[in-house]
Design goal:
- The N and C termini lie far apart (about 50 Å).
- By secondary structure, this protein is α+β, with helices and mostly antiparallel strands.
- A hairpin with a 2-residue loop joins strand 2 and strand 3.
- The strands form 3 sheets. The protein has a 4-stranded antiparallel sheet with strand order 2-3-7-6, covered by helices on one side.
- Its cofactor is FAD.
- It comes from Streptomyces iconiensis.
């Protein structure tokens, strides 16, 4: 590495965080940034306005060819990248749009991660290579219409019928659902919560798409309906029983959000910074006014603190030291600060801030979903509260 001059000032890196990265880290970041600039940014405003993600299968295959799917997993065609490199990729993807990062997170950190960690060797061989290549899209069925923050109350049930399993129930707000070739579905059984690998062509499996969203519009979101879906005995994930299975997958995905949310924040911050330098009022650029500079300074402080926090958690994950409450710390802080950065950026842009000609309002509305999915603010506060006090407040 060649450190930058101590006198250099880079709005994207005031703290010199780049000095913590190696050449391979930077190469991953630049690859993902270049892909997003070429394949997403020219079209994303239109996709968002239309509420569609056209060409999702082609985009997924391209992401697979870049090694972005199951990026931090090893073997089975996965890239085996470091946690920091995966985080950098998430940041660049979400700087383009949260929906694109969600596609990658659900594919790699939820569906593929569940099979990689808890699946049989036969399940891994059957599904992971195609998923890593982007040839097969996966989804992850945990949340239900009446059970989000309390997955232990799920009603989806799997019963034995001879050597088979029969699944019945519904899942809600499932990214990739209607385009997935395989679903990892969590269900209650007589022995506790179990995970099932469900080919989506199975009779009784339906995935109607959810429309009329005002957030994550350039993303495929679906309901999963399982009407007595019959599966062979070897469809169950053998490596785990209980909620620790899906919760460990969510922890892995939340780590990507810690980085990704800072990508959305960075995009909004830079848009506001450039706008402020060009927009003139009262005879000079608004960047020259004290109140605007105060906003920009506060945004920069929270942005760079958030990236530094994400990098710290990544190095802990790479060292095998990352704990779930630390992921909650990062998810809670970075999503809250990201959405506040977007809101502040919107005030600098004034009326132009609500236009899709700028990314700010799109990022802000996307982050309304990112703020609450995979653990609401309140749930992560309680995770940290338990870590601090040793007392469990989840049930009042």
């Amino acid at each position: 590495m060649s450190p930058k001059s101590a006198s250099a000032s880079d709005p994207q890196d005031l703290l010199g965080i780049d000095d913590l990265l190696g050449d391979e880290d930077r190469a991953v970041r630049e690859t993902m940034r270049s892909w997003a600039a070429d394949r997403v940014l020219p079209h994303i405003a239109d996709w968002y306005e239309r509420g569609e993600l056209p060409g999702i299968r082609e985009l997924t295959r391209e992401l697979g060819s870049l090694g972005a799917l199951g990026m931090s997993l090893t073997g089975y065609g996965c890239a085996g990248a470091s946690a920091v490199q995966y985080g950098l990729a998430c940041m660049e993807l979400e700087a383009a749009d949260s929906g694109i990062r969600s596609l990658v997170s659900v594919q790699g950190s939820l569906a593929m991660y569940a099979i990689h960690r808890f699946g049989s060797e036969e399940q891994k061989q059957r599904w992971l290579p195609g998923m890593a290549a982007g040839e097969t899209i996966g989804c992850f069925g945990l949340t239900e219409p009446d059970h989000g923050s309390d997955p232990g109350g799920m009603r989806t049930y799997a019963k034995r019928d001879g050597s088979d399993w029969v699944l019945t129930g519904r899942k809600m707000w499932i990214t990739n659902g209607s385009v997935a070739g395989v679903a990892v579905v969590w269900a209650r059984t007589d022995d506790g919560v179990r995970g099932f690998v469900v080919p989506t062509e199975s009779p009784g499996f339906l995935a109607p798409e959810i429309h009329h969203k005002w957030s994550l519009r350039a993303s495929v979101t679906s309901e999963l309906v399982l009407d007595e879906v019959r599966l062979p005995a070897d469809a169950v994930l053998p490596g785990v029983t209980g909620l620790k299975g899906p919760l460990s997958c969510l922890s892995h995905a939340r780590y990507g959000i810690v980085w990704g949310s800072m990508g959305a924040a960075r995009s909004s911050f830079l848009a506001a910074l450039e706008y402020a330098k060009e927009r003139e009022q009262f005879g000079k650029p608004i960047a020259g006014f004290q109140l605007t500079q105060a906003k920009l300074a506060d945004m920069a402080v929270e942005l760079h603190k958030g990236i530094l926090l994400a990098h710290h958690l990544g190095t802990r994950m790479d060292a095998g030291l990352l704990r779930p409450e630390q992921v909650s710390f990062g998810k809670l802080n970075n999503t809250r600060e990201a959405i506040e950065i977007c809101r502040t950026a919107r005030t600098i842009l004034g009326a132009n801030g609500i236009s899709l000609e700028y990314p700010v309002m799109r990022h802000a509305t996307n982050l309304e979903s990112v703020l609450t999915y995979e653990g609401t603010v309140e749930m992560h506060q309680l995770v940290l509260g338990k870590a601090l006090t040793g007392l469990d407040a989840f049930r009042g």
